[in-house]
Amino acid sequence: MTQFYVGSEIGQLRRVLLHRPRRALTHLTPSNCHDLLFDDVLSIKEAEKEHDAFANILREQGVDVLLLTELLSETLDNKEAKNWLLNTQISSFRLGETLANEVKSYLKTLPNIALAKILTGGFSFSEMPGHTSLLQFLKKKTDFIIDPLPNHLFTRDTSCWIYGGVSINPMAKAARQRETNHLRAIYRWHPLFANQDFITYFGAKDQNYDASTIEGGDVLVIGKGAVLVGVSERTTPQGVEYLAKNLFLHHQAKQVIVLDLAKARSCMHLDTVMTHIKEDTFTVYPEVIPNNMACWCLTPKDANKGDIKITEKKSYIQTLEKVLHLDSLKLITTGGDTFEAQREQWNDANNVLTIRPGVIISYKHNTYTNEKYDKAGITVLEIQGTELGRGRGGARCMSCPIERDAI
To answer: HSE-up of 156 (CA within 13 Å, CB side)?
Structure first.
């Protein structure tokens, strides 16, 4: 039986989920990129090269790399999974009953790998044979029947593994909400996950979670039974409380530490301004995470009921030192002067992926911050990110650890 367990942010990384972009990026244009949460269009070939290099570095470091499109294609081998996904992803209320039924019937004729690429990469009216519904006559050929999901690139957000379970996250933005159903299907029906012994804390059901949203970029499994979470542009207090309740009910965490972040795209998730890179070391962007920042500690009041006790702490640094049993916490701040640090934070200098304690993957263009890592004794494995970084995400954003050692 496979062991799915993520015990920390920095223990040896053993298995990870990535998504190699292509079809969705071909549908990304200057007219739609902002609606799809990208700041610009990407060079597809260069983005693929950069992503392949990222995956290869992980493999060279002994990490088992799973690819989302392949997992989704294999999940679609299961008839129940295919019917469920098509019914949830193609709504009669969105397309009208006639067109929705015809689209589902047509897509069922395709090979599963082609269907997986359409579900993640989009499907336009020009690709659908025949015109039998009013909607088809009134839409442009370039309009989408199924919208592309370019943000699937950032597998960290849609689901996150925390100790012995997973949160299948209700996403904040409409452009990403369909991603969650793909992970629901994979974790339920794919042979690697089906009938395995893991907990689902949040988001198992296809339902409206209203204001309770949470994304994996805001969740840091810092070890010692603790989870550090950012309340951000994408993660709400309601979502954090729901997750904490279920962590406590299943006795998977002793406390959840909460930081209140600015609600801005420049720091859309906690991991864009803070990550854990060594037992006693974090990288931080001090303009958003100042040394005097307070935090809130959520602990179980009655774990059997999921009741939560909330305590405000004056210092997040002292709180982390106590939780991690450290004499002092080391902080590596974003490199360069004020202007250089602001640019490098925007370009994901703090959004690094730790392979094992003191070994990280970082974008090569963040020269000032990478130099500070190096001087602090951190080994930096550099990757090109000129194109991938346009989506506002670095190595941590682009990876969903499924197996990682504790500390």
So the answer is: 23
